[in-house]
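Sample entry was shown:

___
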Amino acid sequence: MQFRRFLADRRGGAAPFLALTIIPLMGLLGAAVDYSRANAARTAMQSALDATALSLSKTAQGMDGAAISAQASQVFNALFDRPEVLGGSVTAEFSSPQQGNFVLDLAATGSIKTAFAGLLGQSELPLGTAVHTGDDFYWTVLLKPGIMNPVAQSVQEAGRAPRAILLPHPK
């Protein structure tokens, strides 16, 4: 009798539903926090690797593979300051497909400890990013000095060639 009355009673029906859904909601919230931390670290890693590639692209043609790797590690470690990233490493690969041209490939890897996903069995999230650059990969932004391009005009007036290497080459 009392059991039938309990089953028929509709008051307070939201409380058990909330109690059952709070656990997965908290797990998803924790996973979002861990993902955001990992994404911020990967973005910083990408930025440091981009700057490393631009720095090395100026001097890589006159260096051997070991010197390029050492220089890449040195520049990357100076730029990438994220203590929460564990085991950060950089690999560099230089090739010269034809005389006067080069290709420089850099890759960085590491991992970040999770704050919440560790409760669900995921103690670390792997991170990785890569950069491909070379003398044909960037195109000239400041082509002609003139009234439509005052930056190139000022660079030419300073006695330098109007050129910048920041936009990807259209292929």
Summary: The chain is about 45% helix and 20% strand. Strands lie at 85-95, 103-113, 124-134, 138-139, 167-168. The helical segments are 2-8, 14-59, 65-79, 150-157.
